[in-house]
């Protein structure tokens, strides 16, 4: 049952988007509907005093009171304003066709508007459950409605109705003589004071509602300004970070420029040295390429010949191995040629080493 109430309430609230504290509204309405199941939530159009209207959440049904130790149900209607809980709900007594509002009731106007101290002195921590408790207590002393009189009854029935308690334990018809007999509690001065008290409380309730709306408007404006300031501060922080990155980039580029200038100077120096070398050696006769590769002396010629013979033996051994692998020569021929080439290669290597040693000695001697 509770889950169904929650689902119905959430469905209603999902179609209303004006409540600043929707979670608080949801919790208070749910607790009230759980305590008083006869109060059912719904959405409806509420017309304000200035003629404007809006969709609000309201609860309609009955609340219990105890009058002369008997229980009665008072039909009421609560409208939860958009500034709730900073402003109180707007409460009405909604009599049925068989009922009428008690004239000059101290807490209910002739239109059914309810004014009690709990509403006029509303605090943000007040709740709907406590409101119903106050209403039940106050209406238990003076019920706000009584049964509508039936004029077609005979005088005997009317007299009987005077002595019989109705559903709300009030006389269906109160004659002027009855009012005079009860002048101790409802004399003319008290009635006028009660009327003024209702008007004053209504004014205070409207004043509190206006103040709550202004507070909500100021709070929203302040929140918008705060959000804008936070956004601008975030932008300023981003700009400062970007400025730092740009400054670092400029410093890095300056260092690169200095390095490039130094490298340019070094390059110009090298270029000058190359030009100087070219000018120095360009005037000389052309070098004969063939003369460069010809050995300068007999030792060098013998060394080149010995090294050539060594490498030629190496190549011959490689191809002998390939021929043996392919079966082109018999194995005994292979061994004979390998022995011959290895000996020749060894002698060539020994000769080359000896010639190299002689060249080193000549260099040291000079």
Structure description:
The protein has 366 residues and is of the alpha+beta class. The chain has two domains: 2-226, Ubiquitin Conjugating Enzyme (Roll), CATH 3.10.110.10; 297-365. Helices cover 62% and strands 12% of the residues. The protein contains eleven helices and six strands. The protein has helices at 2-14, 22-35, 117-120, 128-141, 155-163, 176-181, 183-186, 188-282, 289-293, 298-326, 331-365, and strands at residues 40-47, 53-67, 70-80, 90-93, 99-101, 145-147. A four-stranded antiparallel beta sheet has the order 1-2-3-4. The chain has a two-stranded antiparallel ribbon with strand order 5-6. Helix 1 (2-14) runs antiparallel to helix 2 (22-35) and helix 10 (298-326) packs antiparallel against helix 11 (331-365). The protein is elongated, with a radius of gyration of 57 Å. The N and C termini lie far apart (119 Å). The model is unreliable at 152-195 (pLDDT under 50).
Give the rounded overall mean pLDDT.
Answer: 82
Order of helices and strands: HHEEEEEHHEHHHHHHH
* Main β-sheet description: 4 strands, antiparallel
The CATH H-level homologous superfamily of the largest domain: Ubiquitin Conjugating Enzyme
What's the number of helices? 11
In order across it, which strands form the biggest sheet? 1-2-3-4
């Amino acid at each position: 049952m509770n889950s169904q109430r929650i689902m119905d309430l959430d469905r209603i609230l999902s179609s209303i988007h004006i409540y600043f504290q929707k979670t608080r509204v949801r919790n208070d309405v749910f607790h009230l509907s759980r305590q008083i199941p006869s109060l059912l939530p719904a959405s409806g159009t509420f017309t304000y005093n200035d003629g404007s209207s809006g969709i609000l959440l309201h609860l309609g049904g009955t609340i219990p009171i105890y009058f002369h130790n008997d229980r009665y149900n008072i039909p009421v209607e609560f409208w939860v304003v958009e500034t709730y809980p900073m402003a109180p709900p707007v409460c009405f007594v909604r009599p049925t066709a068989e009922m009428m509002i008690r004239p000059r009731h101290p807490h209910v106007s002739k239109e059914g508007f309810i004014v009690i101290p709990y509403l006029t002195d509303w605090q943000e921590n007040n709740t709907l459950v406590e409101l119903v408790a106050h209403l039940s207590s106050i209406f238990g002393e003076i019920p706000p409605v009584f049964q509508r009189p039936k004029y077609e009854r005979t005088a005997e029935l009317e007299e009987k109705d005077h002595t019989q308690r109705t559903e709300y334990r009030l006389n269906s018809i109160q004659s002027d003589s009855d009012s005079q007999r009860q002048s101790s509690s409802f004399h003319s001065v008290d009635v006028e004071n009660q009327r003024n008290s209702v008007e004053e409380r209504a004014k205070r309730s409207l004043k509190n509602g206006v103040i709550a709306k202004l507070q909500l408007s100021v709070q929203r404006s302040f929140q918008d300004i705060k959000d804008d300031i936070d956004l601008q501060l975030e932008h300023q922080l981003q700009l400062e970070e970007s400025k730092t990155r740009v400054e670092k980039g400029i410093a890095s580029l300056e260092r690169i420029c200095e390095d490039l200038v130094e490298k340019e100077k070094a390059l110009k120096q090298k270029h000058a040295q190359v030009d100087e070398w070219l000018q120095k050696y360009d005037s000389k006769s052309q070098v004969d390429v063939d003369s460069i590769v010809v050995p300068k002396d007999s030792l060098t010629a013998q060394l080149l010949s010995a090294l050539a013979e060594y490498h030629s033996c190496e190549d011959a051994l490689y191809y002998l191995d390939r021929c043996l692998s392919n079966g082109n020569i018999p194995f005994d021929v292979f061994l004979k040629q390998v022995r011959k080439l290895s000996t020749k290669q060894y002698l060539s290597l020994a000769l080359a080493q000896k010639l190299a040693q002689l060249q080193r000695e000549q260099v040291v001697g000079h």
